[in-house]
# Entry
Amino acid sequence: MLDERYTLAYKLYPYERSPDQDKPQATRHPVVVMGGGPIGIGMALDLGLQGIPVVVLDDHEGVGMGSRAICFAKRCLEIADRYGCGEPMLEKGVVWNLGKVFHKDHKVFEFNLLPEEGHKFPAFINLQQPYYESFQIERLRELQAQGAPIEIRGKNRVDGVTVHDDHVVLEVMTPDGPYKIEADWLIGADGASSPLRNMLDLEFSGKVFQDSFLIADIKITSDVKFPTERWFWFEPTHGSGASTLLHKQPDDVWRVDFQIGWDVDRKEELKEQNIRRRLDAFLGDVQYDIVWSSIYTFQCKRMDSFRSGRVFFAGDSAHQVSPFGARGANSGMQDVDNLGWKLGLVINGLAGEALLDSYDTERTHGADENILNSTRSTDFITPKSQQSRIFRDAVLGLSADYEFARPLVNSGRLSVPCTYDGSPLNSADALAGPERTRPGSACPDVKLRDGYLLNQLGNDFVLLCINTDGPDELEESGIKLRTVKLTPSDDPEGRIAERYLGDVPSAVYLIRPDQHVAARRETYNEHLVRAEIRRAIGKE
Ligand SMILES: Cc1cc2nc3c(=O)[nH]c(=O)nc-3n(C[C@H](O)[C@H](O)[C@H](O)COP(=O)(O)OP(=O)(O)OC[C@H]3O[C@@H](n4cnc5c(N)ncnc54)[C@H](O)[C@@H]3O)c2cc1C
# Structure
């Protein structure tokens, strides 16, 4: 039996019988992805763009109903853009940079997430998760039409996995019954309760938070317009919960999120009249339709390691955080951004398995950063000890009048790209340049005379030469390096200089396919750049 665990918003990959189901022997595939959520599909796009054959298995036939994620961060959109689906997301999404924090009825704090210009993508857009996933699938279909070796199989539930030294065997259930396939590599992108993690009996440790949140996505039908800003109330006077969040989404839908406590009767709380009671207390005379509602609880947990032999975990299956800070899907997309090129090089015989271990090193570092930030926000929003509450209330009390207290107000530190400090793939920093572009950093975007820097960097290893010469091309250990040369005439607003040079006159950056800096120096030196490439692919 293949049960529907959730209702579909869009049926995008209906079940079709695969030729694999009629073969007497299990077919071997280079990569199988278990789970077709945003992270599984992101993985398929990354590999498909490299020409690596990939099969995605999902137990449903499309995208689930309900918005879940709404805040998609700049880095996540830049990754989507690298895969070719960032622009429709930006077009559909609601752009916002400004957030306001209230304590009871008083505004205590206001923040702007993107105070600087010259980026293709804003700090955040709000976009319902089903839209995000639909744009990914549209792109997947476009790539398939161009011949990319990506396959997605709906109503294919993975029920069993056996891991061998050099491959994995999967038992798959379909409406036509079970079949088996094999994979050289398996990616677990099967969500927070990850059946794969359980099948392999792997640990998922951390902290469960004892609080519940009621979400209502509502379409306002009266003539009231709230500003396109994130508004967060601590101890709101409307009495609908211990905190409340209000956020705009496309199609005139608003997300309202009430903190309602741990000991609640979920069934009772989800009755329409009870949701309306809270909403009415909050919104007053505003008229609205309820589009979607849900109650969520959360945990901050991660697996000890994101690699287990031939199996990798990415997204919620590998790590889970609270929704404050919007670090779930946003960090999952950084997982696939990191894993895709590494797996591609190993499959193409250009790198050894040490490169794959660096996925675990770099992304567990990212997960720890997210868990730390998410836990701090949660502790501030839902203080669980008398001391934490005294601290929280003092900060909120002071921040209305005293600037020093405002940075301590924590209604969710919003997702920013992870810097892989200390990664074994980084070469020692050889440039007295800006801190924000040190080895390990995700390249900040820059508006150039023609287009944007990140679009020029693309999906390859790139040597970025700024105000200095470099080779037109270079090949090391099978890696073909592409050179992007920029001079002051490409940078009329001086932002390359500000973000990549600082006080030095020139720079040569070695940039990985995931657009993270691997090495930098002032001028080109072939011998050293070759060594830096070898290091960046785990060969030194
Ligand atoms: C209320 C709420 C608000 C959120 N807000 C944000 C936000 O603003 N920003 C943000 O970045 N994140 C947010 N998140 C988190 C975000 O929704 C998740 O991080 C994201 O969905 C994770 O994607 P995933 O692909 O890893 O997992 P999922 O989206 O859970 O996808 C897993 C897929 O695997 C499939 N699957 C499961 N088992 C099997 C099996 N045995 N065989 C085959 N397929 C299987 C499932 O059907 C599903 O399609 C929020 C989450 C919640 C609950």
Notes: The radius of gyration is 24 Å.
